[in-house]
Amino acid sequence: MRSRYFVAMCVILASPACVAGCGRSETAGTVPILRSPRNKMGLSPSPSSFDPGASGATASATTPQPEFGVSGTFSIVAVEPESGVCGAAVASKYPAVGAVVPYVRGGVGAFCTQHRHDPTWGPRALDLLEQGKLPSEVLVELTQNDAQAGQRQLAIIDRQGRTAQQNPTQAGADSRWWGAASGRFYACQGNTLCSSEVIAAMGRAFENTEGSLADRLMAALVAGDCAGGDHRGRLAAAIVMAKPGLEGAWLDQRVDKSDNAVLELAQKYIELKHDAKGAWSESKSPWKDPCPDRPEPKPPAR
Predict the structure, then answer these.
(1) pLDDT per position as a tens digit, 9-21
(2) In whole angstroms, what is the distance from residue 68 CA to residue 110 CA?
(3) C-alpha angle 254/198/301, rounded to 5°?
(4) Is the pLDDT of residue 126 over 70?
(5) Under a CB-based contact definition with an 8 Å cutoff, are residues 283 and 277 in contact?
(6) Helices H / strands E in the chain, number of each
C-alpha cells in the first residue's frame, strides 16, 4: 500500500499533500526532470471552434477569452515522472466535459480548466510548462489580467510532479461544495460537489490503487463518483493520456452523454485492450459496480 499523504482541509504550500477549500496552492515532487522529444500538442478532444462534438484544438497565447460557460466538474491530473506519461480524468453533469476541461502532453504535464472554463487556456498552459515555467507561474500568467479569475478552478502538474491549483473563490452558492487536494504526483479538484468527501475519496483511491497511471486515474474517478460526485447528476466523463514521442492522445476514452457516465466509462476501460492499462484489480471483466447502493446526488447542506 502506498503511504497516505491526504490530510487536512486547508491550503498548505510545498507540503506532501493538501486539501484546499479556498485559494491557490502548490506542491512539489522530488524526481529530477527528464527531457523528451518535443510534442507541440495540448491534447484534449477540444476543437478549434470549441464545439463539444469536434476535436483537435490548439490555441496561441494571444487568443481572446470569450465566455464558455460553467462546468460543474471533478477532475484529477497526474504524471509518472520516470516515463513522462501524463494523464487526466474528469466527470460532470456538463455535456461532453472531456472536450473542454482536460489537456495533457507527454513529457510535459497535464492541465484542467473548469467551473468558468476557458478551453483556449489548455494548449497555452502546456506551452508555458514546456517553456520551463513552474506550475504556479503558469497560473499567475493565465489569471493576472483575467476579469473572471475568481470564477476559475484550475489545476496543473508538470513532468516532475510539481502542482498548482486555484479554486473559484467567487463562485455562487450553487457551485458548492468546491475544493482541491494534491499529493505525490497528482492533484484533484472539483466544484458543484455533494461534499468534501468526493475529493478525499479520489486522493485515497489514487494513492492506494496498485496499477498503471491510467488505472489509478480511473480508480480515483470511480471513487469520487461513488462518494457522490457532481450534485446535479452524472452526464459525462473522460480519461485522456499522453506519452513522450507520440503525437496525439495515447489513450482517449469518453462518455459524452449518459445517466451514469463514470461507471459507463469504467466499463469501457475494463473492456479496452491497451498498453496504458496495468494490474488494477478492479479492471477485470466482468465489471462489478463498486457502489450499487450509492445514493442519488444532491447538494450539500448549507
Answers:
(1) 333 333 333 444 4
(2) 20
(3) 125
(4) yes
(5) yes
(6) 5, 13
